[in-house]
Design brief:
CATH superfamily of the largest domain: Aminohydrolase, N-terminal nucleophile (Ntn) domain
Strand content: 15-25%
Helix content: 25-40%
Shape: globular
Strand order of the largest sheet: 3-2-4-1-10-9-11-15
Bound molecules: 5-amino-5-deoxy-1-O-phosphono-D-mannitol
Number of strands: 25
């Protein structure tokens, strides 16, 4: 939930810190800081606010340090303030941390008894004090870290500098992500590879419990027995350009425009010469698929919404009973499992703590697991028995768009794959359905992003200028997309929006409809159109301001007005994705009108690595 960066080498470190931190801001952005080691001295500069605020502060203290760590924070323990900002120094130890130290209270009491004085409300300062206690005793950074790890519970990724360890950056992780990297001019660490792409593409995902020591000339790893070895570097084909805005006003907008390509990438290499789904390239053998009798999809937020669509498709196409669980609830009330259960964990970041905990629970009770993950090499991708990457590319905006889109695309492909394996549909029918995604959808998405469409979204979004409550309604799959539409609208524009199954509104919630209440109605399933439209009339006659997002053949002529978005796509799946673009764009334009910080909405972070 916070971003960490570190560097040691022959180049100046500060600009690398600020560059990397500005990429990592999506992980948290309420305070920021750096620790710079220069001439053997470690100086920390930190403040509440964003990277720009830190840069202002840094103007007063220029630095030529070649060894540094930095941090951008999403507050958990202790509100956003200068003194709660990282790095935290205790004695000779300077620490940046991502995660939560669960036993910080007990440790703090013990450390206070030993005479330690604390100056912040953070759990991180407690960890720094514990590390320092051991460092003072053994004067050996690796031993001190190992001893502290034995006492710490919770999740953490640490970047550490010690007085007396000149040019050395230490790192360790347990439950929170951390990547090491090798550049031409030194060694790096970061929470996420995107922060390091401007410097290098050689990386190593640090393993649980492994301690790393970086010096200007080498990286060393220490395992449980403190045996030393060198990392095996991997090469990423992500580029720094992929993590730039490319002239778009916001990352979110850029990422919406990338969705057509993202769908193509998600499908590439997964369609065989007969136009049928094929996951052979993902290293999943045929026997694995055949054993599956029921499926549990586990995820959070938008990934869970994608899971809901996936479950519907798997049941419709392959008749495999499939349920969806909120990851943070899953292991506290685990569902009944049996022979042939498969747990699918869906996650864009691959690091979401709740999803990871659910995955680990499933593995601990012997259920086979499959990850559907975007970020390559991340914890969920590595720990799941099998992983299908969505290949959406780096997603920077906190509100997911292309991440969700590719999750649905992969789940659609998976549903058709199960249909093929179980022979619940003919190959011709499967091919036809897949063509809707592969051939028609990229064009349908592009058609939803023309200038004319953009003007319509802008016009429609005006209604949210001075409205704080809204509803999304839909039936069938449209209800499931409504949930995502409502989340998108509320998380970036702060308009309180709830999604309702159209037919359910009249059972109580319709009392909230007043004159002018915005209600966005989705309708992409012709068989449900008549009933869906009846429900729209119910809210319209109570004064609602209705915005229709309707498939052309679900719309009667007289229903179309300036607040109607007509979807021209032909296949069900292309209509679904067209509607998805509309809901994402309406949220975007509403947030623009309301002057919100679109890529970094308040109180949120991109990767939620705490439970
Ligand atoms: O990285 P993940 O897909 O595991 O993230 C899950 C949710 O935290 C994420 O989808 C969240 O709901 C987004 N802010 C929605 O835009």
């Amino acid at each position: 939930m916070c971003g960490i960066i570190g560097y040691t080498g022959e180049s100046e470190a500060l600009s690398k810190m600020t560059k990397g931190l500005s990429v990592l801001e999506y992980r948290g952005y309420d305070s920021v800081g750096v620790a710079l080691q220069e001439d053997g001295e470690i100086k920390t500069v930190k403040c509440r606010g964003r990277i720009g605020d830190l840069e202002e502060k840094l103007k007063q203290s220029p630095s030529h340090a070649r060894c540094a760590i930095g941090h951008t924070r999403w507050a958990t323990h202790g509100g956003p303030s200068d003194r709660n900002a990282h790095p935290h120094r205790v004695g000779s130890t300077v620490l940046v941390h991502n995660g939560i130290i669960e036993n910080h209270k007990q440790l703090k009491e013990r450390l206070i008894d030993l005479g330690v004085e604390f100056s912040s409300e953070t759990d991180t300062e407690v960890a720094a004090a514990l590390l320092d206690l051991h460092y003072q005793t053994c004067n050996d950074p690796v031993k001190a870290i190992r001893r502290a790890m034995e006492e710490l519970t919770g999740s953490y990724a640490f970047g550490i500098l010690f007085d007396g360890a000149k040019g050395e950056v230490y790192a360790v992780r347990s439950g929170s992500p951390l990547i090491l990297a090798k550049g031409k001019d030194g060694y790096y660490l970061a929470s996420d590879m995107t922060a390091l792409l401007p410097f290098t593409n050689l990386y190593y995902p640090l393993k649980e419990g492994e301690i790393a020591r970086l010096t200007p000339t080498e990286a060393k790893l220490f395992d449980d027995e403190s045996k030393e070895h060198a990392p095996t570097w991997e090469q990423t084909d992500m580029t720094a350009e992929a993590a730039q805005k490319d002239g778009f006003a916001h990352f979110m907008l850029k990422e919406i425009f990338e969705e057509a390509k993202a769908v193509e990438n998600a499908l590439a290499s997964r369609v065989d010469e007969n136009g049928l789904p094929d996951f052979a390239q993902d290293g999943i053998d045929a026997a694995f698929w055949k054993r599956i009798r029921n499926i549990q999809i586990v995820a959070c937020g938008s990934a869970m919404h994608a899971g809901l669509i996936g479950a519907r498709l798997i049941e419709d196409y392959a008749a495999i009973p499939t349920s969806v669980y909120i990851a943070s609830e899953y292991r506290y009330h685990p569902p009944v499992t049996g022979e042939g259960t498969l747990v699918i964990v869906v996650s864009q970041s691959g690091e979401t703590a709740d999803s990871l905990a659910a995955l680990r629970y499933a593995k601990s009770v012997g259920i086979p697991t499959l990850g559907i993950v975007n970020a390559v090499g991340t914890t969920i991708a590595r720990e799941a028995d099998y992983c299908i990457y969505t290949y959406a590319g780096p997603e920077i905006a906190v509100a997911t768009t292309k991440g969700y889109c590719t999750q649905v695309a992969v789940l659609y492909l998976l549903a058709l794959h199960f249909a093929k394996i179980r022979q619940t549909m003919s190959p011709t029918r499967i091919k036809g359905l897949l063509d809707g995604l592969r051939v028609e959808t990229p064009y349908a998405i592009a058609e939803m992003l023309t200038q004319e469409r953009m003007q319509a979204y802008r016009r429609i979004a005006q209604v949210f200028q001075d409205r704080d409550h809204a509803f999304y309604i839909g039936r069938g799959r449209d209800y499931l997309l409504s949930m995502e539409g409502a989340l998108k609208l509320k998380e970036i524009s702060y308009v309180h929006t709830e999604a309702y199954a159209s037919g359910e509104l009249k059972h109580g919630t319709i009392s909230l409809i007043e004159d002018g209440t915005p209600v966005i109605a989705l309708c992409t399933e012709p068989s449900l159109a008549e009933k869906a439209e009846n429900n729209v009339h119910e809210v319209e006659s109570r004064g609602a301001h209705v915005i229709r997002i309707y498939r052309a053949d679900c719309l009667k002529k007289h229903e179309a007005d300036t607040d109607t978005i007509v979807l021209n796509a032909k296949s069900d799946i292309a209509c679904f994705f067209s509607a998805m673009i509309a809901v994402q764009m309406i949220a975007y334009e509403a947030a623009v009108r309301r002057g919100c910080d679109i890529d970094r909405p308040r109180n949120l972070a991109k990767s939620v690595t705490v439970e």
